[in-house]
Amino acid sequence: MIKITTIPGDGIGQEVVESGITLLESLDLNLEFIEAKAGKDCFEKCGTTLPEETIKKAKKTKATMFGAITSVPEKKSPIITLRKELNAYANVRPIKSFEGIKSLYNDIDFIIVRENTEGMYFQNETCEKNDIAIAERVITKKASEKVINFAFNKAKINNRKKVTCVHKANVLKKTDGLFKETFYKISNNYPKIDAEDFYVDATAMYLVMKPQIFDVIVTTNLFGDILSDEAAGLVGGLGLAPSGNLGDKHGIFEPIHGSAPDIAGKKIANPIAMILSMSMMLEFLGEKYYSDKINIATENVIKKRKSLTPDLGGNAKTIDVVNAIIKEIHEIK
């Protein structure tokens, strides 16, 4: 039996996690779901956004499903904290065009790999007399080596030809200088994969003007967060954007959208990003057969445009999309 921790969180996070569980339960897999708490609702009930019990549950399972949370002022982000606790050091975000979705380009297919445990998200901020706020940016050689090796291995396994390092070493000479230097040293171990680097501002422009040039991008925490949301906008929005936070022992899988309190409870949340995240989770758990089926079925549903939520121009409810994908899965031979 495969045990999976589920953290629905707030708003539509609860709805999309329920959708993911519904889909997984339709497969011929022996799964057990262990629910845990995090987020704003949790804070109001328990006095913390991430209880120790939730961390303990996640550490006992290889995979965690994470919905979405509403931030609480002056409290550390529960998802960032959980990534650190589980040492899920690589955030992987596939960016791919879908037939049936009107977007700027129909030929995009690349992966963003983002360092997930340090950088500007080190979560160490101070304030001096309310006039000056200071945030610590931490880049270490050890963490850089791990995520850069991960990116090159990802490229190798998926037959990708190039890895692009994104940084701002012309200004952040020490921190991004270390990241860039580490990148090129590691690239020597992968002679069959091209290595290049761009400044983050130039990358933001290239994503809009010529995103086809990218294959695998590896970058630091904040840059990767911003660029991956920008890239999601190129292929239809955050409702189609899955992600996996991967480490050597644990993985956390989540859509990259927020808790969307404005539509919470209306049963129109788009479950596709979560469902694609479940595909990533199953691949991580060694169930590639079902992972591939979910991807194909989801692409088929999007292509047919018969069961899409309002954010994608349809009028379907969340459960309609889930049921349509489940039906497609069982029709795939």
UniProtKB/TrEMBL annotation:
SMART domains linked to this entry: Iso_dh
Entry cofactors: Mg(2+)
EC number(s) given by UniProt: 1.1.1.87
UniProt record similarity statement: Belongs to the isocitrate and isopropylmalate dehydrogenases family.
Taxonomic lineage: Archaea, Methanobacteriati, Methanobacteriota, Methanomada group, Methanobacteria
InterPro entries: IsoCit/isopropylmalate_DH_CS (IPR019818), IsoPropMal-DH-like_dom (IPR024084), LEU3_arc (IPR011828)
EC category: oxidoreductase
The keyword Oxidoreductase belongs to this UniProt entry's keyword annotation: yes
PANTHER family found in the cross-reference section: DECARBOXYLATING DEHYDROGENASES-ISOCITRATE, ISOPROPYLMALATE, TARTRATE, ISOCITRATE DEHYDROGENASE [NAD] SUBUNIT ALPHA, MITOCHONDRIAL
GO terms under biological process: coenzyme B biosynthetic process; isocitrate metabolic process; L-leucine biosynthetic process; tricarboxylic acid cycle
Keywords: Magnesium, Metal-binding, NAD, Oxidoreductase
One annotated GO molecular function: isocitrate dehydrogenase (NAD+) activity
Protein's UniProt name: Homoisocitrate dehydrogenase
PROSITE patterns, A to Z: IDH_IMDH
Annotated ranges, domain Isopropylmalate dehydrogenase-like: 3-325
